[in-house]
Amino acid sequence: MILCCGEALIDMIPAPTQDGVEAYVPNCGGAVFNTAIALGRLGIDTGMITGLSTDLFGQKLRQALHDSQVDTALCVSSDRPSTLAFVQLRDGHASYSFFDENSAGRMLTPADMPTLPDRVTALYFGGISLACEPGAEAYAALLEREGENRAVMLDPNIRPAFIRDPASYRARLDRMLRQADIVKVSDEDLDWLIPEGTHEADKAAQLQARGPALVIVTRGSAGAVGYLSGHDPVQVAAPRVTVVDTVGAGDTFNAGVLASLWQQGHLTESGLKTLRAQGLERALTLGARVAAINVSRSGANPPWAADLEADSTGSSSA
Predict the structure, then answer these.
(1) Cβ neighbours of 129 (radius 10 Å)
(2) What per-residue confidence (pLDDT) applies to 131?
């Protein structure tokens, strides 16, 4: 099982009413939640660990996970409120205002984190859950306790305006990066993590020197590039589609990469050591394909495995 560790929240998406007044419609979301949903829909054995409220939004989140075949047995329930993220869309690009104080997800502590069963062979961390204390420390503690002998992917998905203590955040993130096998960053994330210098490859090498065997940099509509130790960079293009919005694009990309590595037998610590350029290209290609389908739809709505057969953005064997 791939266990996705991080936030599940409600995206409040703007939508016009019949009389023209703008309203907000609740949609299930969160970076790690979106990746879990996408993995489940791709037919990968997936679970999630997060703090879920018993309120009506928490029930909605839990049901959505079940509907996409994601195991919620390790989720931590409480009567604290669900996190709400109000979304603003400008030219298809999303910005967020978070309401997260005292929420079920944010208030997790290291003591809340369960011992993981042996069937969990890979861990995925990311999103705002790595920035908001005390929950951020709970996820860092989970990685430290359970990450050994499991493949670990990390996508910090950095939102600078959401980080209250940059020094503390950087220190925690550095600890987690050193325990990760795969790190995915956007080009903007990479510049925030390593502001010195101008060359992406040099910055990726600096990030790789902290521990991860594979660093993936996404460039939006320009595609993605993977830096694998001892090999030339592998670049894939983004399929051309009509973009409705970009909500959940990077999260869905991550799911495609994880799904492909899982299917190829590389999503283990030993399996990643045998990963070569061809296998990495397959993983990046699937990531790009599923992300392209997602952005052609409104909101975070990752494809099911069956959707890939009807998809015209690339070969279903990617």
Answers:
(1) 27
(2) 93
pLDDT, tens digit (0-9, with 9 covering 90-100), for 114-151: 999 999 999 999 999 999 999 999 999 999 999 999 99
39 Cβ neighbours under 8 A, 6+ residues apart = 2, 4, 46, 70, 255, 258, 259
Distance, CA of 8 to CA of 204 (rounded, Å):
29
Rounded to 5 degrees, what are φ and ψ at 36?
-60, -45
Longest dimension (CA), the chain: 60
**Backbone angles phi and psi of 9, in degrees to 5:** -145, 180
Amino acid 42: pLDDT: 98
pTM of the model: 0.93
Would you say 214 and 224 are in contact if contact means Cβ atoms under 8 Å apart?
no
Residue 17: CB partners within 8 Å, gap ≥ 6?
A: 23
Q: β-pairing, 22-29 with 9-16?
A: antiparallel
- Answer yes or no: are the C-beta atoms of 139 and 125 closer than 8 Å: yes
